[in-house]
Amino acid sequence: MINGRPICLFKLHEPVQVAHWQFSIVELPWPGEKRYPHEGWEHIEIVLPGDPETLNARALALLSDEGLSLPGISVKTSSPKR
């Protein structure tokens, strides 16, 4: 449960490849109360190992300058509370 919504994890038979990354597990939350005018990606989340203090720099290093300059693209970082 995250924010009161059940979360389902799906292990893929074959990983999805995006650039040099491969994803073999997809996490989907139960739909919330928000309604969207079109279907599509609201956001993606990527888990990066390492020190929380260097997370932002490591995350930005993975993205191209072109990708960061596209309208509607933003980066938000967070780490588990200890």
Automatic annotation (TrEMBL):
Domain of life: Bacteria
Gene3D superfamilies found in the cross-reference section: 2,3-Dihydroxybiphenyl 1,2-Dioxygenase, domain 1
Pfam families: YecM
GO CC annotations on file: cytosol
Protein name as it appears in the record: Protein yecM
Organism: Escherichia coli
